[in-house]
Design brief:
Helix content is 35%, strand content 20%.
């Protein structure tokens, strides 16, 4: 009875863990890595055709995105996921496959001209379609006997429509162990979906730590915050450009904008246009409008009962074709643009950034986590210039982060979720966080809850019966030797940028403080600036 950690270990993306028990090999999640790699992940130590089943926590690509590649390699077992996760994966995996094929085609055109090697896509649309035939629809709070001695139960993780924590119960040689995979634990009091369901039992827990080193701060009124941003941007004749994850975040923003329009909170622009420019987001929005009522929160259900669509309103434009997308930037009327990808690494958002980043009247609003190394992280951290389509673009637009709208629980929420267990687990494994954050959150678990916690690396293997690591990975940094010195400098500089962001958060928290204290604070900041500006 063994766990092997494959992906999202000391990293945020690429979630994947292998369970070996009762003669079965089971994967929990099989995600693509996104952004910059910190470590080289080990290969899955079992051939694809020998994997007996896959348990999927939710549809986001960093948890599901390598499933078609697994199927392409020979996997043909059942994929257990909630009904909503299956419906979202149906569009997300096909979209991901289309991107893989397009990128391979582009690389091969260049390779032919240069006499280079031809590459194959990681997987194709056909592979994605084959994957969908393996999905088994599940629902929350029901036990599913997947094998004779192995059963699972899905708990509502509150992160995305259909997102789950998965409790796995295994009996082998008269020994029973329960393993809880948190998936991505959601933020609280968010529109459309319910708060995360807290677990009450588990011998072992694998818990995410995306925001394991920080709190979201005091809860801010989403509607007031967003309406203020839209108001001042439209007043100065600019566009509000929101790089938004196509599934989940886009629909929450539409929910908020519907309220803003309904209550007339943006003055002088009563019927301002809103564009959703992402074919994937358009398809996902249709799914969120479908009768998946068992996954919605009470407020959304009340609106639906009154015949009100929670995410639709007047002057909402859903752009599907390339021509429709291009037309958005030809139209000079101030507007709100929601476009993917959420980290600005691909998709139509890059075109909207090209047309708006250099405009002081426009605003770019980040509404989700930006992985280190992504274009979104660079812009958010204050880059003066960025490169898009081989063109240098000055960053003159106002750049903001919509506070607290993150889909992930913060440190205190994660501790509260974990602390709901009736008995201390035998061990907690921390993953799905930046390199240092995993260790920081493991420390917090030990200090605040008194639980035994560790942050494993890719390749670590743990025996659930002897309760000890049977293999410890050779930790391999994902950088070439000739880049090592540059990467070290970059890491230090990125740490400095993070410190600057933290300083801004501290300044915001001290709003309304005593003038005497604020003056001292200001003097110290200015003293530091004077020292390093010389």
């Amino acid at each position: 009875m063994k766990l092997t950690f494959i992906g999202a270990d000391h990293e945020v993306t690429g979630s994947c863990t292998l369970i070996e028990a009762c003669g079965k090999n089971i994967l929990v999640d099989c995600g693509l890595e996104q952004g910059k790699d910190t470590y080289v992940n080990c290969e899955i130590p079992v051939e694809a055709e020998k994997i007996d089943a896959l348990f999927l926590t939710h549809a986001h690509i960093d948890h599901s995105g390598k499933i078609p590649a697994l199927v392409k390699a020979g996997f043909h077992g059942p994929i257990y996921a909630t009904d909503a996760t299956g419906k979202l994966c149906d569009i997300m995996l096909k979209d991901s496959a289309h991107i893989q094929e397009s990128e391979a085609e582009w690389k091969n055109r260049k390779a032919k001209r240069a006499g280079g090697e031809i590459v194959e896509p990681i997987y194709t649309v056909q592979d994605a379609e084959a994957s969908m035939k393996l999905f088994k629809s599940c629902f929350y709070d029901e036990d599913y006997q997947v094998f004779d001695q192995i059963r699972i139960r899905f708990l509502d993780a509150g992160h995305l429509l259909g997102s789950s924590s998965i409790l796995v119960t295994i009996t082998e040689d008269d020994e029973t162990r329960t393993i809880l995979f948190s998936g991505d634990v959601g933020n609280v009091d968010r529109p459309l979906i319910r708060d995360p369901q807290k677990p009450d039992e588990a011998d072992f827990v694998i818990i995410e730590s995306t925001y394991g080193d920080r709190t979201h701060g005091e809860r801010i009124d989403y509607v007031a915050q967003l309406s203020e941003i839209i108001q001042r941007t439209l007043d100065r004749g600019g566009n509000v450009v929101i790089p938004s994850f196509a599934i989940g975040r886009t629909q929450i923003l539409l929910y908020l904008i519907r309220i803003i329009k309904e209550q007339g909170l943006v003055k002088g622009h009563d019927n301002f246009p809103v564009y959703v420019d992402s074919p994937l987001a358009v398809e996902a929005t249709a799914i969120y409008s479908s009768p998946l009522t068992s996954f919605f929160d009470e407020e959304a259900l009340e609106l639906l009962a009154k015949g009100i669509n929670p995410i639709r309103f007047e002057n909402l434009h859903l752009s599907v074709t390339t021509d429709e997308s291009k037309q958005i930037n030809f139209d000079r009327e101030p507007k709100v643009i929601l476009s993917a990808s959420g980290m600005c690494e691909a998709g139509r958002i890059r075109h909207h950034l090209k047309h708006n980043l250099w405009r002081p009247e426009s605003t770019v609003v980040f509404v989700g986590y930006q992985v280190e190394g992504t274009l979104g992280r660079k812009i958010k951290n204050g880059a003066d210039k960025i490169k898009l389509f081989n063109e240098e673009i000055a960053v003159k637009a106002e750049v903001l982060e919509l506070a607290d709208i993150s889909g992930h629980a913060d440190r205190d929420m994660l501790l509260d979720w974990l602390g709901n267990l009736k008995q201390a687990p035998r061990k907690v494994f921390v993953n799905h966080g930046d390199d240092e954050v995993c260790d920081i959150f493991a420390d917090s678990i030990r200090e605040k809850l008194g639980f035994d916690a560790v942050a494993p690396y890719s390749g670590d293997a743990f025996d659930l019966l002897s309760e000890d690591f049977t293999e410890r990975a050779a930790i391999v940094k994902a950088v070439k030797k000739k880049q090592a010195a540059h990467e070290k400098v970059s890491a230090v500089y990125n740490a400095l940028l993070e410190a600057g962001q933290r300083l801004l958060r501290v300044i915001e928290k001290n709003k309304g403080g005593a003038n005497k204290d604020l003056e001292k604070f200001t003097e110290r900041i200015n003293s530091l600036c004077d020292r390093y500006e010389r």
